[in-house]
Amino acid sequence: MKGWSKKVYLELPKPSEEDHRPLQVRLTAALEDSGPFRLEEKTGYIRMRPAALRDAQSICDESGYRVTATAGFDGHGWELLGLEAGDTVKEHYGLCVDLGSTTVLMELVDLNTGEILGKAGMFNPQINWGEDILSRIFYTKDQPEHRKRLQKATAEGFCALMEQLREKTGIDTRSCPIMTVSGNTTMIHFLLGLDAFEVFQSPYAVQTLAPDICRAEELGISMNGFVYCCPGLENYLGGDIISGMLATGIPDQEEICVFLDVGTNGELVVGNKDFLLAGAGAAGPALEGGVVHTGMRAEAGAVDRVTTEKGKLKVHVIGEGAARGICGSGIADLIAELYLNGWIDLRGKFQEDVPEVVRVPGREDKESELAVEYAPGLCFYQDDIDEFLKTKAAAMTMVEYMMNLIGLTMEDVGRFYVAGAFGTHFDKESAVTIGLYPDIDREKIISPGNTSLQGAEKLLLDRSLAGRAREIIERMEYVQFGAVEDFIHLMAAATAIPHTDLQRYPSVVRRLEERRKNK
Questions:
Q1: Are 34 and 8 a contacting pair, CB within 8 Å?
Q2: Rounded Cα gap, residues 440 and 446, in angstroms
Q3: What is the pLDDT of residue 290?
Q4: DSSP state of 219
Q5: Would you state the pLDDT for residue 159?
Q6: What's the per-residue H, E or C state across 29-78?
Q7: Separation CA 236–CA 280 (nearest Å)
Q8: Residue 408 zone, left/alpha/beta (φ > 0; ψ -120 to 50; rest)
Q9: The predicted structure's pLDDT at residue 204
């Protein structure tokens, strides 16, 4: 594997009257003559900063000049990061990170074997300054101290995850020579302490889309090595999506693929080895349980599955305890069941003559409103449905617009990837029923999981993929959905359940007929 770091065991000649070269020269010569560096393409130099040499003499003396040198690639050449006594070549580890706006996930990987040794996750510490990205962007606008605050919180979050992994595995993660990070453009700006306002403001001239590799200590991360961030394409299409391309291999595939990742923003790539068309736009937090009044993340207490038994709703709760709210996958199931049961119409509007639909005291300035009680004491309201349908309409309109742009239909698609937790946990049938997924062969609908983290892992193990990421970006043509004039008009048709054109959803029509027969 062509990694970002090397560990090389050296048996150095001891100094003598005949050979009194400085230790720096002695180490450089031994490294350049070692197998890993002889086989490496010319990179210019092996640098040794004074910090790496401070303890080198005592380590050499104690070990009889039998040492393991760790070197890291700084983007241009190699740098000695430190020495260890004896042969520790087998103890070579790295870290990869998915820096999401809601959660941060980290893996510890054996760089010799590629084995994942441990995983850790946490809510993004930036949430303390705003649940949504836009709030954080405005919090840091023209406020250098606020930017420092978010940057420090992000770095401390990384350090906390490193400590979790150390406790799980017994491996000192601070000695890792490399960390790769995938995240959207805003998250990478916050990690680096940069002003992210241009991500949001036209003409979207952000500070960087491909930051240089940097020392972890520059970012406040307690690690003796380098941090590499996967490059992005545009303000709303960042390194997390490019990582997704590396993870799925779409840019190398023969068949036409669709890659959809929906959260607060929706990112989309359509293409194969011959072309790549990418786009992004606002979707909304409803698919992640946001906005919905009793919505929550997919954690203990969240309703994540809903079915109908004997005409009544039946829910599954994460952790098997009492329900505290409902997450995205549960919402998709719930709306699908409401529609199939005839409790809401194709517009998503509650039918007042259905016994299960109740009128409850209004909130805010409403006297009363319609709702359904999906779990004891927990209601799903009309405006909850409305918000969710807007979000799903935005997601599928992006797909429809892109397919029309290149003159293709869903019948031309070989694989429809739905990335992230959004794709992993949603039931395919429910998602098709409400029009969130297209009505295609279910085998074509693929939930690859967290492709942002998977791509970061691939980058960690093979630095040549950094060049591949740049090639993918150069091949992509970008569509800013926010600038599409008739996008809102197109969304109106997709707001219906599953769509105003039912001919696009024959399987949903069949399910409706079956449900009505069994009543």
A1: yes
A2: 12
A3: 47
A4: G
A5: 98
A6: HHHHCCHHHHCCCCCCCEECCHHHHCCHHHHHHHHCCEEEEEEEECCCCE
A7: 6
A8: beta
A9: 86
User: Lowest-confidence range among 6-15, 55-64, 126-135, 257-266?
Assistant: 257-266
Task: Provide the residue ranges of all domains of the chain, joining segments of one domain with +.
Answer: 5-85, 93-229, 248-450+457-519
Confidence tier at 493 by pLDDT (50, 70, 90) = confident
CB 433 within 8 A of CB 512: no
Q: How far apart are CA 331 and CA 310, in angstroms?
A: 20
- The CATH homologous superfamily for domain 93-229 is Domain of unknown function (DUF4445) (3.30.420.480)
Measured distance CA(354)–CA(356) in Å, rounded: 6
pLDDT band at 44 (very low <50, low <70, confident <90, very high): low
CATH for the 5-85 domain, from 3.10.20.880, 3.10.580.10, 1.10.260.40, 3.30.450.20: 3.10.20.880
How many of the other CB atoms lie within 10 Å of CB of 54? 10
DSSP structure class, residue 307: E
Placement of tokens 């994540």 in the chain: 304
| Alpha carbon distance 429, 439 (integer Å) | 9
Sheet holding 257-262, edge to edge: 445-446, 415-418, 257-262, 265-271, 276-282, 476-480
